[in-house]
Amino acid sequence: MTTSYIGMPKFPKAAKAALENSQQRKNLHHATHTIRDKRARVVGEVDGWEELRVAGAAIKDEVLTHLDSYLVQLEESLTRAGATVHWARDAAEANSIVTSLVRAKGADQRIDEVVKVKSMATQEIELNEALEQAGIDAWETDLAELIVQLGHDRPSHILVPAIHRNRAEIKEIFTHEMGKVGQPAPDGLTAEPRVLAEAARVHLREKFLRAKVAISGANFAIAETGTLVVVESEGNGRMCLTLPETLISVVGIEKILPTTADLEVFLQLLPRSSTGERMNPYTSMWTGVTPGDGPQEVHVVLLDNGRTSALADEVGRQALRCIRCSACLNVCPVYERVGGHAYGSVYPGPIGAVLNPQLRGTASPIDKSLPYASSLCGACFDACPVRIDIPELLVHLRTRVVDERRGGLPSGEELAMKGAAWLFSDPARWERAQRGAELGGRALRRRDTLGRIPGLGAWSDARDAPTPPEETFRSWWKRERGSEGDR
Amino acid sequence: MSTSPPGAGVRVALFATCFNDTMWPETPKAVVRLLERLGCTVEFPLGQTCCGQMFTNTGYVREALPLVERFADVFEAYDAVVAPSGSCVGSVRHQHAMIARTCGQPALEQRAEAGARKVYELSELLVDVLGLTDVGATFPHRVTYHPTCHSLRMLRVGDKPLRLLREVRGIDLVELPEADSCCGFGGTFAVKNADTSVAMGSDKVRNVRATEADVLVAGDNSCLAHIGGLLHRQRAGVRVLHLAEVLASTEADVAAEMDRSRVADLAREAR
User: Fold this and answer.
1) How far away is chain B from the Cα of A189, in angstroms, using its nearest Cα?
2) Torsional sign, CA A78, A84, A87, A90
3) Whether A471 contacts chain B with CB within 8 A
4) d(Cα A436, Cα A451) in Å, to the nearest integer?
5) Touching check for A334 and chain B: CB below 8 Å?
6) B55 vs A376: CB contact, 8 Å cut-off?
7) Lowest mean pLDDT, pick from A104-108, A139-143, A390-394, B263-267
8) A111-125, A136-150, A158-172, A173-187: which range is least confident on average?
9) Chain A residues with beta carbon closer than 8 angstroms to that of B155
10) Reduced to 3 states, what is the DSSP secondary structure of residue B148?
11) Is residue B45's pLDDT more than 50?
């Protein structure tokens, strides 16, 4: 089972460790560049891509602006269609609802396992761990999630949770772990993708056919009809959503779309942005219970878990438009080097850096450091299919982190910033400060750089620092042009 | 009858930026030479200090507020302001109004919004305002160009810097692989996340070296200080230079530089 994220070190420390893993660096570089190029190709061929992005953002904003009424409408539609709606304020409530539902199901036929469709919401609330504590095994059926689960690992990407693993590593995991929890891997397993996929298929088939309860999330929830939508690529989702007797879906409250027609926009935006495909392979839609067809007991758990506090922030709320496509991860230069684990959440990369501090707050070292885990290069905003201005949000959250720290004993950084601001507040004062640089420049006239500077290791461990010039521009201008322009 | 130069009658205020003013004075000097050569009148209002970007992007929006006000006070009177920095122009254009709004200063927000429309990054001023791509420069070196993130994705300068460089006499301009990838500088990111910053910079340097260029050119000296610091530590033999200095360079400058190196060679031989 995956381990908890509590007590994660701050980002720079976790990143340093990740950067030293050369195999992972290679795996990540290869995978992110492959998906990045594929996405760019299929996005480039859509004439009205920008219009689609604008439409996607507008639909999500409409939902977020009127979320209260859309949620009530969704509950009514779901109930009318025969589903049972549950409301969960936080992870603990959601986990306890799901656990009781599974236990209730087992009143006459003790249930000790469920099959799962890949779902970010259930990972966010650490449902598998909660079920495990209750003596219920939760089997992940998405291939990459299976690799992560069998490897006692953590997902490092939203869409491709095992992106940090290569084929040889996966073969080892299958060989050693599959037999411990079910159908073992066949003898003579190779690292060929087709062979690995076949081993997973056989291993999972047994679980699909046996399971009485399935747990899913949802990519979209249509308020008008109560239809839930799951978008996946392997058909494992289709198996989970149709075979078991009971289906429990944990759905974040921001997943709503007003009408079925809105899917037109999102079923174009999502596959091209996430997998780089023109059309999604398996799109499953279900509306409550259909007598004699599919699960006859359908539950929907509507999850808040920090979403309403993000909604309360006028700038921050745009992060709730996110459709979990992971395009921002794939284009991010930081994610590409560091991978997903350093972000200390199931939501890594640029979207994780703006979503986690909003969902979880900024109390922990990792959540305080996440808004700074970016060079603000802006590649994420350009790739985002719902136009979340991630750089703007990062700066907004940095401001929050700094403002929350104000009032106490000032940090070294705060003192330095206040000192610099004091210098810049008066041109004459700033000019006197520049004199210091000029003196340094004259003293170091013979050197073109300073090389390593003691105490400035963060800069100069790997980068030679420049020597200040003997004369600033301002001094030159005054010497050459007098005080012309003085105002 | 002689035609008037393209910049005749254009009065431009130079925002040198605090970093260029103090650490890279050759860049704003080059802007002055270039624009005056093109016929512009260049002024350097001495009341200027800093755009506040470092404060804003580190979360110290409240410390940036007085600088937003100072910028408006100093530059409001001009019709055109130029800065040789994509990220400082980005800060003025895309952040000043937000800072005023965050700090509850609606009057300043309006002034910042109006002011932002008159601030140009160097390549924008040359191409969009003066309508030029050939600025009469000569620079006989093998050059590769790194488009800095804020020029590219905040200001959307597109290929304006490259169009300017392509017209430079004698230049051997080679394409930089993965050019639009961030170099890893990112302001305080370079020290707060130094390991990741250096990892990103190392890949940039690898691509720069693969071009076999002698000079790496960009529109931001902050990014160049980071990439240049890595190149210098590797003793890579590639120097970094701001776009303004390439565009300001003339045939006479090139001849003078050759004379200087000839004198240096002779001095070495004599020793």
Assistant:
1) 36
2) negative
3) yes
4) 19
5) yes
6) no
7) A104-108
8) A158-172
9) none
10) coil
11) yes
| Three-state secondary-structure class, residue A281 | coil
Q: Nearest Cβ partner of A424 from B25, B50, B154? A: B50
pLDDT in tens, B220-232: 999 999 999 999 9
Average pLDDT along chain A: 94
DSSP-derived letter for residue B181 is S
Predicted confidence (pLDDT) at residue A486 exceeds the cutoff of 70: no
For residue A64, pLDDT beyond 60: yes
Q: What is the pLDDT of residue A397?
A: 98
Alpha helices, DSSP H only, in A224-347? Answer: 236-242, 263-274, 307-311, 327-331, 333-338
Chain B nearest-CA distance from A22, in A, is 12
In this prediction, residues A403-431 reach a mean pLDDT of 92
List b or e across B136-150, with b for residues whose CB sees 16 or more CB atoms inside 10 angstroms.
bbbbebebbbbbbbb
Name the residue among A377, A437, A486 with its Cβ closest to that of B149.
A377
Q: How many C-beta neighbours within 10 Å does residue A187 have?
A: 6
- The residue of chain A with its CA nearest to that of B239 is A448
Q: What is the CA radius of gyration of chain A?
A: 26
Give me the amino acid identity at A422.
W
Task: Take residue A42 and report the two structure tokens written for it.
Answer: 């299929």
Q: How far apart are CA B67 and CA B69, in angstroms?
A: 5
For the residues A370-384, what does the mean pLDDT come to? 98
Q: How confident is the model at residue A487 (pLDDT cuts 50, 70, 90)?
A: very low
Specify whether the CB–CB gap between B47 and B114 falls below 8 A: no
pLDDT over 70 at A484, yes or no: no
Q: In this complex, do A459 and B194 lie within 8 Å of one another by their Cβ atoms?
A: yes
Asked whether B19 and B92 are in contact (CB, 8 A), the reply is no
Tokens 């949620």 belong to residue: A71
The count of CB pairs under 8 A between chains A and B is 202
From the list B212, B201, B197, B130, the residue with the least C-alpha distance to B163 is B130
Q: How far is CA A302 from CA A19, A116, A120, A132, A250, in A?
A: 38, 17, 14, 22, 6
pLDDT band at A408 (very low <50, low <70, confident <90, very high): confident
Taking CB atoms and an 8 Å cutoff, what residues of chain B touch A402? 58-61
Averaged over B137-153, what is the pLDDT? 98
Residue A323 predicted with pLDDT over 80: yes
Could you say which of A458, A468, A469 has the minimum Cβ distance to residue B191? Answer: A458
Nearest by Cα to A457 from B233, B53, B191, B220: B191
Which residues, numbered 380 to 419 in chain A, qualify as contacts with chain B under a Cβ-Cβ cut-off of 8 Å? 381-382, 392, 395, 398-403, 413-414, 417-418
State the average pLDDT over residues A174-179: 97
Amino acid at B218: A
Start-to-end CA distance of chain A, whole Å, equals 67
Of A373, A466, A487, the CB nearest to B74: A487
